[in-house]
Amino acid sequence: MGRTYESIDSRLAEWLLSQPIFFVATAPGGSDGHINCSPKGNRDELVVIDDRRVAYLDQTGSGVETIAHLEENGRIVLMFCAFTGPPRIVRLHGRGHRVRPGEKGFDALAARFPGGDGVGVRSVIVVDAERISDSCGFGVPLMAFEEHRSTMDEWSERKGPDGIAAYWQEKNAASIDGLPGV
Fold first, then answer.
1. Residue spans per domain, the chain
2. pLDDT of residue 174
3. Torsion on CA atoms 11, 16, 20, 21, rounded to nearest 10
4. 96/69 Cα distance (integer angstroms)
5. N or C terminus: which one in the chain shows less Cβ crowding within 10 Å?
């Protein structure tokens, strides 16, 4: 049933990019912290950089767990599920890091995404896949995709750059476990 892959070939890359949603999971070091799993709408906010590396656009959110966990230990897994067509689940286990606006390499990464310089963009998360695997997905339901929500973009535009910066200070300064955030 399940397979592992040496790399992300063009066929797998096309499948990953065609999924309208993916999930990101991280955990702090030790045994006491909270594990995080976040859904990410894929409105062209995921790119395959090369055969073992992907990146996604990190939009402002109510929490900052992924960033905090990556800063602490770098561990991350991205999971993609086929909700239409043949059943399939793909996981990319690896090490991730964030690249912030103003940091070296951010502009080149952000240019890969439509809206990569949007007001709500916190960073680009880059994942170096150490294990690429799939499994059957027989238990994943068939679901119809309607459309992506525009709420995040509208909210960010209303807040503006200063409002977003204030929000980061208030809501994204630390993770729920007290790890440093934005």
1. 3-171
2. 96
3. 160
4. 10
5. N
Provide the pLDDT confidence category of residue 115 given band limits of 50, 70 and 90.
confident
Per residue in 107-130, is it b (16+ CB within 10 Å) or e — as a string? eebbebbeebebbbbbbbbbbbbe
125: enclosing H helix or E strand: strand 121-135
pLDDT digits (tens, 9 = 90+) for 42-53: 999 999 999 999
Mean pLDDT of the chain: 96
Q: In 3-state terms, what secondary structure has residue 157?
A: helix
- Contacts of residue 78, defined as CB under 8 A and 6 or more positions apart, other chains included, come to 22, 23, 24, 25, 54, 56, 91, 92, 127
**How much of the chain exceeds pLDDT 90, in percent?**
95
Q: Which helix (H) or strand (E) holds 108?
A: helix 106-110
CATH of domain 3-171: 2.30.110.10
DSSP state of 178: S
Query: What's the pLDDT band for 117 if we cut at 50, 70, 90?
Result: confident
